[in-house]
Amino acid sequence: MIAVVSAALGLIFVFSSVLKISAPHQWRSQSGGLGVPWAVAIVVPFAEAVVGALLVTQLARRPVAVLAAAMLLAFTVLLVRRLRQGLRPPCACFGTLSAQPIGWGNVIRNAVFLLMAAVVAVWGG
User: Fold this and answer.
1) Is the Cβ–Cβ distance between 60 and 50 less than 8 Å?
2) How far apart are CA 38 and CA 90, in angstroms?
3) Global pTM?
4) pLDDT digits (tens, 9 = 90+) for 99-125
5) Can you say whether the dihedral through the CA atoms of 99, 103, 105, 107 is positive or negative?
6) CB of 92 closer than 8 Å to CB of 82
């Protein structure tokens, strides 16, 4: 069961990274709209790809799940801050598939992903 959750979360990370890498101009624009400095944003898709691949292959599952949870927490905090500021730029979470303005649904989705990462981190052995 834990292997399935880990692999599913890993695929989500890989999918997200591929969509960002395949449309770099859109990723730059959307991440900028969220207020992410480009020096940080340029690293995100590659970090997602590595974390995702490690989760899929089950290598160092527990520490990688902790890293995934930290990334998801940072993404979620950013979304909540923008929403509380009354800002609703495009999500940028899934590249070309996330052209809609951010909303609380994005926060809930991330909470589910965080729960998945926590399950793997705690019980992933």
Assistant:
1) no
2) 16
3) 0.94
4) 899 999 999 999 999 999 999 999 987
5) positive
6) no
